[in-house]
Each structure stands twice: as structure tokens, then as C-alpha cells.
């Protein structure tokens, strides 16, 4: 089993920097990282998966420097990263998901891909992995609910239950 996570608004709430991120004002974004927060139970979920030797990857449309600053600030225990400059095409194109699988995951195993945006779901579906719509950080929950994701999680606790159910079968 392998698990792919989007970073922003899936693992962390970075909404206060959304306009700065859209404008690519990264130095300004870096200054507000301490004002972000991890969603409830995220570290517990990641530690659970790490303890079960599940391979984890963050696939983000943000630059690696930003992703590393965020993961280090919050002690997010994921070292495998596919970031903006790692691929030519970006979500909703499946290239970042496919690269994550090729580089870090065993494509023969079940793979879940968690994200808060329709682009995450579309990329996951095109890459033929189980897509999971994460409603807690989504700015457009209705579109996400209608995305035909394989699973919908309203809270990180729902995500934890889903993962625990599937880890039990390993």
C-alpha cells in the first residue's frame, strides 16, 4: 500500500497564504508559514502509516523550497516529495502522481491519493489510483463531492478510519 497526499489544505491549513501563493510571492509566503496549522490528527495518521511501513509521498503544485519549509516547520514525517519543478505537467494532469508512483511507490499495490481540489481527484483518476476527496480543506466542497472520487472524507478522522480499514488487510 502507498499513500499520496496533497499538501496545502489537505495536511495543513495554508489558506491565509492562498493569494500570496497564487501570485507566487514566495518570500512573503515563507513569512506566514508559522501562522499555518496542521489539521487535527494529521501527525497521528502519518505516524500510524509510518509505523506500518506504508510508503508516503507529498505531491504538490508548489515549489520544493516551500514544501520543505512547511514540512520541516510542522515536523511532517514525509521525506518523499514531488513538487512543481519535478514535472513538466501539473495537476490535473496525472504526471505528478505517476512520477510519485514510479519513484517512491510500488504500482502493484493499492495506492490512495488524498486531495482537497478537483485537480487532485482528476490527476489521481487518470493515474488509475484510488482518489480520496478531502472536504475539510476544500474551498469548493460541492465540486469535490461531485468529482466521482473513489472515497469522500469529511474530516481527517474519516481519512484515518479509511486508512485503518485498508491497512488491516495487508
* Total domains: 1
Oligomer: single chain
Unreliable stretches: none
Write down the overall mean pLDDT. Answer: 96
List keywords for this structure.
6-stranded parallel sheet, 170 residues, two-stranded antiparallel sheet, Rossmann fold, alpha/beta, HAD-like_hydrolase_sf, HAD-SF_hydro_IA
Structure described in brief:
This protein is 40% helix and 16% strand. The protein contains eight helices and eight strands.
Description:
The protein is an alpha/beta fold and 170 residues long. It has one domain: 3-Layer(aba) Sandwich (Rossmann fold), CATH 3.40.50.1000. Helices cover 40% and strands 16% of the residues. It is built from 8 helices and 8 strands. It has a 6-stranded parallel beta sheet, with helices on both faces. A two-stranded antiparallel sheet has the order 2-3. The N and C termini lie close together (8 Å). The model has no long low-confidence stretch (mean pLDDT 96).
Secondary-structure blueprint:
Elements: E1 2-5, E2 12-13, H1 18-22, H2 26-32, E3 37-38, H3 42-51, E4 55-59, H4 64-73, E5 81-82, H5 95-104, E6 111-115, H6 118-126, E7 130-134, H7 141-145, E8 151-153, H8 156-167
Parallel strand pairs: 1-4, 1-6, 4-5, 6-7, 7-8
Antiparallel strand pairs: 2-3
Amino acid at each position: 500500500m502507498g499513500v499520496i497526499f496533497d499538501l496545502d489544505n489537505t495536511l495543513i491549513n495554508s489558506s491565509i497564504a492562498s493569494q500570496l501563493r497564487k501570485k507566487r510571492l514566495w518570500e512573503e509566503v515563507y513569512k506566514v508559514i508559522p501562522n499555518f496549522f496542521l489539521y487535527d490528527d494529521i501527525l497521528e495518521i502519518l505516524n500510524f502509516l509510518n509505523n506500518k511501513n506504508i510508503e508516503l509521498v507529498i505531491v504538490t503544485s508548489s515549489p520544493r523550497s516551500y514544501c520543505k519549509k512547511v514540512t520541516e516547520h510542522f515536523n511532517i514525517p514525509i521525506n518523499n516529495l514531488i513538487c512543481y519543478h519535478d514535472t513538466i505537467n501539473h495537476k490535473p494532469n496525472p504526471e505528478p502522481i505517476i512520477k510519485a508512483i514510479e519513484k517512491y511507490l510500488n504500482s502493484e499495490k493499492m495506492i490512495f491519493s488524498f486531495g482537497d481540489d478537483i485537480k487532485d481527484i482528476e490527476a489521481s483518476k487518470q493515474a488509475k489510483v484510488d482518489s480520496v476527496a478531502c472536504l475539510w480543506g476544500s474551498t469548493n466542497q460541492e465540486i469535490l463531492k461531485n468529482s466521482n472520487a473513489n472515497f469522500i472524507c469529511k474530516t481527517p478522522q474519516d481519512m484515518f478510519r479509511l486508512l485503518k480499514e485498508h491497512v488491516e488487510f495487508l
